[in-house]
């Protein structure tokens, strides 16, 4: 049995060693990234049984990603190396404040070989949570219907569905994103949205109104990520709960913080924790991601979160 399974692209992520415009970055570190990949790694580091459905190129970079995911303990039964495809690339640009921007060289994606049959035969049937993000459906229109099929398989087998809208305007228009993401919402149990993405979906409204919009589709649990303002959440029968942000030790690279929050939040859901504790834990995980260069290198182990929260003594030497 898996706790969480997700589907998406894996990318070789070239992280610049210096900050500033990409055109002046001469040195990079080769890492692995991709929103759904990060989530699978984040869940595994917290000790959850996590799985990743994907395709990589049958090349050196594809082998690297596969090795990386195996090393992290992610179930890669549903990952295949595809002949005739290059493993996608993402060159990151990191600005002075640690915020990042992506420069993709990712099409055609090897994940375009994924079919309905792939999903039928995948480990979706064995997972407690099926997690989808807005990145995979943005890659090509066919992925929207694939995700609907994945949701049906997951639901038939009793899984909860979790969604992060993760809207990447470099990959699709806000109109296409809205159409696809709103079509998923009636089937979603847990939404993990950035504040900006809630506004892209529902227009500029208050935080509470955004939460209400999500719940009007029948979403049971909503979490809204608010950066330095922390996070807020609501379950069907509680008032909105607010959790303040956790100050990062330093801000090195903010890309992947949202994926870290999601891994932490879903961990709390699987432990049946109260919403406030779940939000605090998720904020803590997100804040640890930004202190380390790379999309997922900063994702903490469970005991590191406990130490950071002061629940476990840290023994340095
Ligand atoms: O959430 C982090 C991702 O944005 C990053 O790993 C790569 O942009 C990315 C993507 O498309 O998944």
UniProtKB/TrEMBL annotation:
For this UniProt record, give its keywords in alphabetical order, as a comma-separated list: Kinase, Transferase
Q: Which Pfam families match?
A: PfkB (PF00294)
Question: What Gene Ontology molecular-function terms does this entry list?
Answer: kinase activity
Top-level taxon: Bacteria
Keyword Transcription regulation carried by entry: no
* Stored InterPro entries: Carb_kinase_PfkB-like (IPR052700), Carboh/pur_kinase_PfkB_CS (IPR002173), PfkB_dom (IPR011611), Ribo/fructo_kinase (IPR002139), Ribokinase-like (IPR029056)
Q: Does the keyword Transferase apply?
A: yes
Q: What is this protein called?
A: 2-dehydro-3-deoxygluconokinase
Which species is this record about?
A: Alkalicoccus daliensis
Which family is it part of? Belongs to the carbohydrate kinase PfkB family.
The Carbohydrate kinase PfkB domain covers 2-300
């Amino acid at each position: 049995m898996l706790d969480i399974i997700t589907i998406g692209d894996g990318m070789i992520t070239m992280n610049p060693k210096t900050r500033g415009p990409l055109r002046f970055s001469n040195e990079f570190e080769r890492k692995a990234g991709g929103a759904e990949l990060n989530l699978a790694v984040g869940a595994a580091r917290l000790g959850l049984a996590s799985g990743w459905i994907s395709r990589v190129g049958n090349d050196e970079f594809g082998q690297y990603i596969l090795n990386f995911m195996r090393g992290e303990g992610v179930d890669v039964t549903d990952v295949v190396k595809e002949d005739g495809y290059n493993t996608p690339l993402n060159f990151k640009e990191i600005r002075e404040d640690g915020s990042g921007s992506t420069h993709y060289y990712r099409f055609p994606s090897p994940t375009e070989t994924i079919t309905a049959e792939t999903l039928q035969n995948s480990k979706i049937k064995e997972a407690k949570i099926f997690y989808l993000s807005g990145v995979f459906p943005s890659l090509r229109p066919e992925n929207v219907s694939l995700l609907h099929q994945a949701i049906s398989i997951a639901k038939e087998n009793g899984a909860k569905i979790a969604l992060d809208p993760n809207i990447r305007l470099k990959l699709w228009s806000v109109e296409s994103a809205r159409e696809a993401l709103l079509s998923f919402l009636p089937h979603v149990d847990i939404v993990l949205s950035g504040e900006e993405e809630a506004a892209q979906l529902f227009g500029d409204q208050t935080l509470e109104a955004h939460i209400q919009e999500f719940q009007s589709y029948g979403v049971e649990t909503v979490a809204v990520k608010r950066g330095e303002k922390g996070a807020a959440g609501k379950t069907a029968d509680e008032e909105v709960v607010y959790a303040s942000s956790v100050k990062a030790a330093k801000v090195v690279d903010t890309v992947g913080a949202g994926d870290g929050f999601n891994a932490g939040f879903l961990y709390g859901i699987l432990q049946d924790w109260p919403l406030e504790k779940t939000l605090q834990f998720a904020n803590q995980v997100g804040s640890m991601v930004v202190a380390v260069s790379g999309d997922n290198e900063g994702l903490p182990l469970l005991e590191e979160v406990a130490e950071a929260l002061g629940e476990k003594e840290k023994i340095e030497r």
